[in-house]
Amino acid sequence: MKRINKMKRIVISCMILLGLSGCYKLEQLDPNQQTEESFWQTEDDLYRGVIAVYDQLQDRNMYSAWMRLLPTYISDESTNFDTFEYGNLTRFTSSLVDPALDIIWYQNYKLIGRAYQVIDREANIGTPGAASIAAEAKFLVALAYYNLIVSYGENIAYVDRIQTPDDRPRRAEDDELWSLCENYLLEAIELLPTSYPIAEYGRITSGAAKALLAKIHMQQRDYVAAEPLLREIIDSGFYQLNANFEDNFIENVAENPESIFQVNFRPFGSPEENEHNTAFREVGIGENLTVQIWGGMHCTKLVPQSFLDEPDKDGNRDPRMDATVFSEFSDLVGRTYYGRTHAQWIAENSITGDAEFQEIEFNTTFYKYHESINVIQAINSGSTQDPYLRGGIDFIVIRYADILLLHAEALNELGQTSEAHSVVNLVRARSNMNDLEVTAGGELSQADFREQIKHERLLELAYENVRYYDQKRWNDFGPQVINQFRIPATGTLVDRDADYLEFDIGKDELLAIPLREIQLNPNLQQNPGW
Amino acid sequence: MRFIISSYFMLLSVLLVQAQVDITGTIKDDKGELLFGATIILKGTNVATISDIDGSYSISLPQYKGTLVYSYVGYKTQEVVITDQSLINITLAADIAQLDEVVMIGYGSQRKVDITGSIAIVDTDELTKSSYTTITDRLQGRIAGVSVSTNGEPGSTGTIKIRGNSFFGNNNPLYVIDGILTNDSPNLNPNDIESIQVLKDASSTAIYGSRAANGVIVITTKKGKSGKPEIQLSFNGGLQQVPQTIDVTNSALFARINNAAYTNDPNGIPQTRATDLSHGVDTDWQDAIFQNAMLYDLNLGISGGSDQLTAFFSLNSTYQEGTIIGPVFERLSGRINTEYKVTDWLSIGENLAVSHSKSTGQQELDGEGVINNAVNMLPTVPVFDPTRPSGYGYGLQGEATTFYLNPVGIRDLYTSEQNTTRIIGNVFAKLQPIKGLEYQVSFSVDVSNPRFRSFTPGGFVVDSDPILSGLEETRSTLSTNLIENRLSYSREIDKHSFSVMATYTEQQIKFNYQGTSIVGGFDGDNPIFQISASTADPNNITSTGFETTSVIQSYLGRATYNYDNRYLITGNLRYDGSSKFNKENRWGLFPSISGGWNVSNESFFDVEAISNLKVRLGYGEVGNASVEDYAYQARILSRSIGGVNYNLGIEDDQVLGATRDAVVNPNLKWEVLKETNLGFDLALFDGRLELIGDIFFGKLEDLLVDAPLPGTLGAASSFFLTENESGTATRNIANMKRNGWEFAMSYKNFDNDFKYEITANVFRNNNEVTSLPEGSLTGLYSITQVGQALGQLFLPQYQGIYLDTNALNDMLVEGSTPVIGDARYIDLDGSGNFSFGEDNALIGNPNPGFEYGLNVNLSWKDWDMTVFFQGVQDRDIFNQFRFSLNSSAISNYTSDFNPYIDGVGTDPRPISNNQHPNNFPSTRFIEDGSFLRLKNFQLGYTIPFKGVKQARVFIGGQNLFTITDYTGLDPEFEGEVLSPGVDFGSYPNVRTYNMGINITL
């Protein structure tokens, strides 16, 4: 009996132990990631924050692909024969449910959202370094609003802080967002350095902030405000034209003196599709089996015809043409596109040999930013084709040649047409083109120069995501685009873009705000006509 | 904890002083058969024994006092008050309705007759007559209110839904296996299962609180029985095949339609194509991948023990091949359950199962199902084509344009294997310090370690888009620890009997994962598929790893009161705290109350035919939470792989970035079901006929919805042209209601040599969204909106084709004037222009009208037979196969497709542009998904062997025939929550012919 008693004590004591032990804790913090409470303490945290803002620039929906392709589709530089995806956007036949209308909105607000995580936390850290980092983020907010305003107009959602799931931002008044951008950029000009150590090449400088501010003034046709800024950038001597035009569109091995702000890409990256650190490249065979780049993009006739209008000083084709487009002329200079000549492309892809498909508008596509190291390596090694071949060519968002041409445009608008000629000639001279006065047989009038600059910007900047913005600035975005364009210097008439046939005045000037955005945010109003 | 500790001290004060008296006797049934294994227990104590093979028993008691309770499964329990007898012979009467059967109700048990909620008891004997390798599949059609979707993929567990879909996230029931709680379909040996109870209504499930809103399935494994050891051996082997294929066109018919499709496309490139596209090839792709497949199951079980120690042991080996080339599932498992009665107040024991399973040749490669490719692939492409790289045939642009992959090529080039070791078990101790009071403590673990490996040398199975060589290897561990302390007390005072139970339990679930994925580097000259041998670019080697922990702490209790077996009341209360929610929302209280009235026990009740009539009414509130661990925590995304990083410097060096990871809703809380259940149990003619009926009305509140966020929040997806590309956040914003009825009956007649038992059930579930503040939710071809059930089909209404020239100008179709042979749709909004989306109608209800099961058991002398039918009635299905086949020029066509070509045909004229209205999804592809299926058949013969308790051989089969109008592969499939009526073409259920033998020694 005693034994039982003792045993009972032992057994029960053990069970109390077992019953009490364990006691797993209810407070469980994610061991895999830091939380917002523990992060955002130091300047280094803030630096990581701004790097994430830059990262959004590399997204495939941003400068890796769609942020520059979609505006190009809509512009008169390009058309798209696909019957689905982006075809409606190109032809102004989108309905409200067309998802292509949404990309620029969502992705630029994403850029803004990441930027405010930095901007709103700068004060907690309070160092001069933190202020400079926040200024980079402010530049990127301005860039995003620049993209948004041009596409959707000024009366869009006014976001100026970190958003929570319940926030429904108000609708911006006219000029409100432009002033926000201008104030941010003025701050950035003050706070940002003119350059960075070589290991940080690619960060935003005060020169970049000046250039974006100038572009924003230009977009509002405020030539008075823009001109001195543009002159300041030029006079700083900080930037210069590359001797070779094409050096802007190849894999960089050194700093590019012509690049004012660029998105850096790497030549090689993870095969994961959401790893956006390479520029998106894909050769594609579209529905119509013609030479085109991803998404079925072709040049309009405007592009090859404009290039063929005027020979260079030696009577040859404008050397920028073969660097800009892949056409039947490319074979003459030994250019290939993914290792294949133009003739091979036509032979392989135009099965019918139908005469229609021999026409230049069907067999010419953009070539800038094209052949990158890994593509060439892939071809040389004879490896199987990779459908997602990506490139490391940095995409230049603001190029010095753009600034020069904008300066010429501003000067002309301010009545300084003669000086404007000399600025344009700097850009022409780099590509072995005669001075404008030589070609035109004298200085152009202010009105003719205004038209000529459209032609000059096309030859220099085609496929660099500026044409759409230019057309809007020039009020040259409407049904008139189907008419032929007269190049003042030569008097030649060139075709433009038949896609504008369907342009609805009073509606297609702006894209529709995404339908779901209107549904979720009662403060917003749909753009007119949609 | 304090009450537990004090109970220990109470324990210490009790000592039992014992003298010994012995009582012996024999136990027979009412036909004079001696009963082996009947239980004799001194009421209110642990003093018990079991009758021997000759029906005799002997029990030692402390004194001549108390009541002996004699019970045996299938017989009515008898009680004998002890005065001074030393010999008690007992005759037990058969209890056809088995009202005294003990039912596991969660943290305890109840007699069937005392149950007040809606709890279904599964006939586990019947389940053993099936050759499905998983227990979930075997439950199909057996229980009113429980829908099971199975598929034929080897080793896959079916999906169980109790009372239908109620949530946008998790709709899986909670499984409780020997007290261990899990949401995964249990992959355990069906032969080990002693009993299965399904708790359906909220008043029953509330004892499981926050995880019980989808119902609870309580599984108890077999325990050893004292007495002579019993050895069971069984073998079951068979052949499986796909019962149905999709009838598609041969090369000649295909070429006729396909050529017309290209000719009809005004924007298309007229292609120079031969009338005979086939070059003599006519491939039957489904024939190329479907095969007859073997399966077998070998099982050994040993049960036995003494008065003090009992043990159950089992070993099981299962092997199942796929009915498509490739997949094989193998499982080896063992179990030992023991219990040792140390003293009359203490017993200890364990339940332990170990298993190893291996699945090879998974069906999917990057989401490209082998079956999907086989159905759609063109007949003009040969399986093997030596002129192609890799040697597999595939479509070529302009000749046989298709982007479908060669399914045989996928199968050959892609190797995968998953090995999983799982240990699930617990140790427990039960103490009975004083009469009526029991304390039970248990510690449980459930650990599984899957290791997955796949690799491919790469190669071409489609034009221009090769499978890249590569390797993927992942390992993970999922482990659950559970501690449970339970105190229960029961007492009878005259006509009052009551019981209380209080439990404290804690569960911790830990998961960790690590994986490496390599793309490239295993091309032809590198045959060593190991990470160590990779020659891939370092950028193409990615590895990930993470771990998560979640904890639930619970206080729960139950009280029952029974007055004179007439009035029954049960109350449950559970208070759950979860680490998944923030402090403010962490704890939830889940109460329930239910009552029963045993009308037949009333003195005024005097209906000869009715042996039992009980009405039940219950109300309960239970929870659900389909949220990820840490979902409420605002986390920072910052990492080198897959991070928000940027490249600076001319060398493009990677710089680490950081930003908030997803958008977090810190206010997440439980989803709640509040349900009322009304039911009755009726037994007639001495229990021969039993009827059980239930109706229920439930409200679902604070449902979690992945609600879209405005793009201005900055949470847009990196993927373009996707649903919800503006980002989503999970929020408790929706409400629904649900209701339904369930009816089950059985009729048994065991009186003669010819014995039979018929059981049947039929049920219906309805749900309706009552609030969805952020607007309707869309699934593929489906819409979920306020006032409607989940996932109604939402499509244009197809009206045949235009054959009359005069009708062409009636209206526009997508802005254009149709031509003869084009599809005609209803212009619902009367705008004069049919437009997809604007003119879509709510046109198909994927929610079944009712579901049913019917089982018939017959036996005559040594012969027995089982026939089991299962069916679903009034369900609309969108046949995705038919749509993808007959709306596209890059896939084959169904052989009954009769498009308008050269002036004849009844289906829309073919056109290669897949955006053309003729190729729209519409009511044209909605079919009646009703079916009746012979789910199981078995014919057995018991061989009268001497010295062997039982030796039975049988032949049988599963899914032997299906009566349905549905033309897809299988009308039974598991749809998505938001598109439950869309048949994506999952692995079809297989037809099995099997035979086997059961031996009991």
User: Cα distance, first to last residue of chain A?
Assistant: 93 Å
Oligomer: heterodimer
Our Rg estimate of chain A from Cα atoms comes to 27 Å
The structural class of chain B is mainly beta
- What composes the largest sheet of chain B? 22 strands, antiparallel, barrel
Number of strands of chain B: 56
How big a fraction of the residues of chain B is strand?
over 45%
For the biggest β-sheet of chain A, the strand order reads: 1-6
Shape label of chain A? globular
Low-confidence runs of chain A (pLDDT<50, min 5 residues)?
Answer: 271-275, 281-295, 350-357, 384-388
Helix content of chain B: under 10%
Question: Level of helix content of chain A?
Answer: 40-55%
The main sheet of chain A comes to: 2 strands, antiparallel
Q: Would you tell me the overall average pLDDT of chain B?
A: 88
Fraction in beta strands of chain A? 5-15%
> Which shape of chain B, going by the Cα principal axes?
globular
Number of helices of chain A: 21
Largest interface (CB within 8 Å) is between: A-B, 115 and 108 residues
Characterization of this structure:
The complex is a heterodimer of chains A (530) and B (1001). Chain A has helices at residues 2-20, 43-57, 66-74, 87-90, 103-119, 122-125, 128-152, 176-191, 206-219, 223-235, 302-309, 319-324, 342-349, 360-363, 373-380, 400-413, 417-430, 436-440, 446-461, 467-473, 515-520, and strands at residues 78-80, 259-263, 279-280, 283-285, 291-293, 297-299, 325-326, 365-366, 390-391, 395-399, 485-487, 492-494. Chain A has 530 residues and is mostly helical. In chain A, the strands form six sheets. In chain A, strands 1-6 form a two-stranded antiparallel ribbon. A two-stranded antiparallel sheet of chain A has the order 2-10. Residues 271-275, 281-295, 350-357 and 384-388 of chain A have low confidence and may be disordered. Chain B is mainly beta and 1001 residues long. Chain B is built from nine helices and 56 strands. Chain B has a 22-stranded antiparallel beta barrel. A five-stranded mixed beta sheet of chain B has the order 10-15-16-13-14. In chain B, strands 3-2-5-6 form a four-stranded antiparallel beta sheet, with no helix packed on it. In chain B, helix 7 (370-376) packs antiparallel against helix 8 (407-413). Chain B is globular, with a radius of gyration of 32 Å. Classes of the chains: A mainly alpha (530), B mainly beta (1001). At the A-B interface, helix 1, helix 2, helix 5 and helix 21 of A face helix 1, strand 25, strand 26, strand 27 and strand 28 of B.
